[in-house]
Amino acid sequence: MDNFKPDLANSCPLTPLTFLERAAIVYGECTSIIFDNNVSYTWSQTYTRCLNLASSISSLGIKRGDVVSAIAPNIPAMYELQFAVPMSGAVLNNINTRLDARTISVILQHSESKLVFVDFYLKSLVLEAISGLPKGLSTTPMLILISPESDDAADRNSGSSGPIGGFDDTYEGLVNKGRNASIDFQWVRPNNEWDPMTLNYTSGTTSSPKGVVHSHRSLYIIAFDSLTNWSVPKQPVYLWTVPMFHTNGWSYSWGMAAVGGTNICLRRFDAEVIFKLIGLHNVTHMCGAPIVLNMLANSPLAKPLKYPVHFMTSGAPPPATVILRTESLGFVVSHGYGLTEVAGVVVSCAWKPEWNSLPASDQAKLKARQGVRTLGLMEVNVVEPETGLGVKRDGSTMGEIVLKGGSVMLGYLKNPKATSKCMINGWFYTGDVGVMHPDGYLEIKDRSKDIIISGGENVSSMEVESVLYMNPAVNEAAVVARPDDYWGETPCAFVSLKEKGLTGRPTERDIIEFCRARLPHYTVPKTVVFMEELPKTTTGKIEKLSLRNIASKLGFKDGCS
C-alpha cells in the first residue's frame, strides 16, 4: 500500500474561487447580492460580472502574482472584487477605509500594488496617498473609480469607460469591456494551492502595519471551516456588518458563494438601518466585533426581533452582560476567536446541550469563552512563552495562545524577521494571553501587552472590563495600566456612559465601589476617567495605545491610599 503517488486527477490545487463557479450552476437564478433599492444580482450574473472584470484586469497587463488593491466599504463592487481579482491571477489587497493617506501610501508602496480600485467617496483620500508615493518609483498604480451607486445603473447601460478625473477607468467600464473578451477568457487557476491569493495588512496601531499573505489553500480551508463551525445552512441571508477589508469579511465573502447565500450589502454601519434591513430581507446571519453587539443592544431603536438572527462575534471577549442584552432582543450570539494571520475564526465556543438548562447569566459567561478549535485547525494550546510547555488546565494559569493548522498564513510580506518571531517550532504564537479550562475550553485573558502587573500580580484588563460592562450606566469601557509609585502599576478604567435612561450620572467613587463588590481588591480600578467616546482603531476596536498614553500622563498615583 505504499506505491501510490499523487495524480493530476486527485491533486488539483484547492481554491475558494471554485465556489463561485459552482454557485452559478446550482444557484444561478437565486439572488446573490442586494444593495439599496437599485442593485440586485443573481449568482449567474455575479459569476459573469466577475469573469468579465477578471478578463479586463488581465488585459491591463496585470500578471500572475501582481498585487491589486481595493479600498471600498461593503458595496457590491467590493464583494465582486474578492473573486475577480484572484480570478485574474493577481493577489487581492483589501485596504482599510479608515486609514489615513500616509498609511495607505505606505501600504501601496510596500505591496508594490499595480492597480487600485477606489470607492467614489474615498477618491480624494487615495489621490492624496498616491501623491505621497516616492518620486523615484518606476511606476505608480493605475486607478479605477467605483462610481456612486446612483450612477451604477447608468454606467451599466451606457457601457461608459475611459479616464475620469485622475483615474484611468471606471469599475463598470471594466466590467463592460470584459463582456466580449471574457468569451474566450479562462479565469486563472493557481499553479499550486500554496500560491498567494490575498494580502491583508494588520492595523498597525503599535508599529508599522505588517502584510499578511494567505494562500489559495488556507482560504479554501478557512472558508469551508467557517461554514461548518457556524452550521450555516444553504441559502442563508447574510447582512454585511463586518467590513470586507477586515480579513476578507472573516472569509464569508467566499463562504456565501459556497452555500448560495444572499449578500445584503451595507455602505456604513447604522443601527437603525440594520434593524430595518433585518426585517425587510429576513436576515438570518450577521458578523461583527463585540462593539457592534454593544451598539445594537444600546440603540434607542432596539426592539425584539420577530425571529432569531445568528450573530458571530470575534475579537475581544464580549462581556457577559452585553451578550445578555443582545440575546434578549432575539440575536443568537456565537463567540469565536481568530486573527488576520489565520484568516478567520479558528476557535469557537462549541455549545454543549447540558448548558441549555443553566441560568441565562451562566450561559452568557460560557459564551464569552473562546472555546475549542474548529475542525480546520489542527491544534490549539496555551503555553509558557519561555519554555513552550503547556500551562496547567486549571482556568487560572495564564500563558500565550499558540495555534497550528491549514489556515495559518504563509508569512509577512518582505518581513522574515517578524515571521520567524511568531512562527516557532511548528506553532504560530499569537501574542494573546489566555487560560485553558479543565474541560479543554480556551479563554482569552488579554493581549500580552495589555496585562497589568500590580504588586507582582497579573491583572487581566478584560476581566475588569467585563465587570464594568455589568454596570447599567456604562456604554463602553476599557482598562489599562497607570504607573504607581507603590504597586508599579494599577488598573485605570476609561468609561463612556449611556446617553439615555440614566437616573443619575455615577461618580468615580461609584464605579470603583461597583467593581470592589465584584472583583478581588487588587484588580479594582484605582482611577476612573470618563470620556464622551472611547478612541477606536481603524478596525473599530477600542484603541488602548491612546488610553495608555493618557494614563501615563496622569502621572504616578499614591498607591498606599
Automatic annotation (TrEMBL):
MF terms (GO), sorted A to Z: ligase activity
Location of the AMP-binding enzyme C-terminal domain: 463-541
Native species: Oldenlandia corymbosa var. corymbosa
Positions in coiled-coil regions: none
InterPro entries (alphabetical): AMP-bd_C (IPR025110), AMP-bd_C_sf (IPR045851), AMP-binding_CS (IPR020845), AMP-dep_synth/lig_dom (IPR000873), ANL_N_sf (IPR042099)
Domain of life: Eukaryota
Tagged with keyword Ligase: yes
Pfam families membership: AMP-binding, AMP-binding_C
Record CDD domains: ttLC_FACS_AEE21_like
Stated name of the protein: OLC1v1035634C1
Keywords from the named record: Ligase, Phenylpropanoid metabolism
Keyword Signal: no
Family classification: Belongs to the ATP-dependent AMP-binding enzyme family.
